[in-house]
Design a protein that fits this description.
Blueprint (H helix, E strand, L loop, with lengths): L12 H36 L4 H53 L16 H35 L9 H6 L1
Helix pairs in contact: 1-2
Length: 172
Amino acid sequence: MAQYKRRIKLIQPRLQLKLTGWFLSVTAIGMLLQYMLFGFFLTQLAIQLPGQGGYVVAQADKMLLQALGVSFVLVLPLTLAVGILVTFKVAGPVYRFEKYLQSIAQGEETGPCRIRKGDELQELCRRINSAVDALRARTSAPAQAVEARVAAAHEAAPALPSAGSGQAQRLA
């Protein structure tokens, strides 16, 4: 496994920011839902108060808006940071798989695909290695058979004169 530490956290910016955007959306919707529920329950409570219900509703609405604003300022950046760090554990291996498969497609000799310990998609990495090993075995078997036949033909054939020898020039 690769032991280096990636410094760039946005390995696949499009993928990571898209997923993080979904995290932010869900968080924002959850906070708005919580705001509406608190407002509803406080309004129900204020209605039951004798005399000062209107004042409580007005104050509660102002306080809830302040709490919502503070929550957005604190929680959304935290969600953004956590989202990028979490997607980093997926985007890094995806990036590595792309580069690995690209090098195989270009015919480069590669060792097994490796990702960092702690990254997600370890099982997928093992499966990619198994598939590549199986393909290499299939393609190397016919090549080895051809090499064996050529070697057998050389052993069975009488020694032919080389192209630079006088015998070969006389035969031509």
